[in-house]
Design brief:
Helix content is 43%, strand content 17%. The protein is of the alpha/beta class. The protein has a 6-stranded antiparallel β-sheet. Strands 8-7-12-9-10-11 form a 6-stranded parallel β-sheet, with helices on both faces.
């Protein structure tokens, strides 16, 4: 929603401000930029493009470009001020819980764009499932604190675990601080603002519908773009490690018993000795056992997909992950982070 409050320079109409903002934002992959572009298209605004070579953006702050004869800056209020916008006719723009993006035209603050944060449908269930497993969950947002805490309350994240107004480098710093406390950190994100933190975390998890910068530095990509797949990934990792340990123990015990017999340990007692052909067959049987146990993962994962969406059985899982943290972005938009 675009709002032009009392006190703005009426030289530009709402559609003109939205069209100019879209002319800048069509050059970025940020979800808020895409939302502005789509809003301009749905409002049948005039299609404008930034002059070639003038577009610049700063993750966590905003974007600026020259459109026609005007310098257009879109982003946070501080970002606009750094590009020559002095007066603020909208002092009460950030009172409500909506995300806010300012639009500056040359040296004037021309409009304010409000965004309604749309939560992922499964966000609250995923947070609950992680908490049941003993995993601490934090939310990092570039938005103002009131908006961030409102979103956190909807999904069940305590206020003391909400970091608001953080920029990309601050996200990375927060992840590093948890790691210095000997915590194992997984970062979940989908935007370019998350890339540094995803790369710094022990396990980076990118949403499949996000930008490529996030996917490129992540260890795991959730191709279905559903937050609930994080629970599936955790279960898969635990089942995989369990299978690896089972296979190692099987191979170890099998060889502990088989090698002495193959060496003739039973010959003095029973007169039995393994021929090379029998020993080879038994060794092959060992490999078949290992592969069969590994293939059971497909059966286990297939049955887990038939569970109800509330993940109650997963929440009751006693196989806890100790001393771990998952940093989540639960909003489909980037909760006010510009650029």
């Amino acid at each position: 929603m675009l709002s032009l409050m009392d006190g703005f320079d009426a030289s530009f109409s709402e559609n003109e401000v939205l069209s100019l903002a879209a002319g800048v934002e069509c050059n970025t992959n940020h979800p808020l930029g895409k939302a502005i572009t789509e809003a301009a298209q749905s409002s049948h605004c005039l299609t404008l493009k930034a002059n070639e070579g003038t577009f610049k953006e700063q993750p966590g702050s905003g974007a600026v470009a020259t459109v026609g004869q005007n310098k257009i800056s879109v982003g946070t209020l501080d970002w606009l001020k750094s590009h020559g916008v002095v007066d603020n006719p909208f002092p009460d723009a950030e009172i409500n819980r909506q995300s806010v993006v300012y639009v500056g035209i040359d040296s004037k603050l021309a409009g304010v764009i409000y965004f309604e944060d749309k939560l992922r449908d499964d966000a609250r269930q995923v947070i609950s499932a992680l908490s049941k497993q003993g995993i601490s969950t934090y939310m990092l947002s570039g938005d103002k604190r009131s908006s961030a805490e409102h979103v956190a309350s909807l999904v069940g994240i305590p206020k003391d675990k909400v970091m608001a107004g953080v920029k990309p480098e601050e996200k990375k710093k927060f992840v590093s601080e948890l790691q210095r406390q000997k915590q194992v950190v997984a970062m979940v994100g989908d935007g370019i603002n998350d890339a540094a933190a995803l790369a710094a975390s022990d396990v980076g998890v990118a949403m499949g519908g996000g930008v490529s910068a996030a996917s490129d530095v992540s260890s795991v990509v959730l191709m279905g773009n559903r937050l609930s797949q994080l629970i599936d990934a955790l279960e898969l990792s635990k089942e995989t490690m369990k299978t690896v340990k089972q296979n190692l123990w099987w191979a170890f015990l099998y060889n502990i018993v088989g090698l002495p017999i193959a060496a003739g340990a039973l010959l003095p007692v029973t007169g039995t000795i393994l021929t090379p052909s029998i020993a080879g067959a038994l060794m092959g049987f060992s490999s078949v056992g290992v592969m069969a146990n590994s293939l059971l993962l497909r059966v286990k994962l297939g049955s887990s997909k038939q569970r109800p969406a509330n993940y109650n059985s997963q929440q009751e899982n006693n196989n806890r992950i100790g001393s771990s943290d998952v940093v989540l972005d639960v909003s489909e938009e980037r909760e006010g982070e510009k650029s």
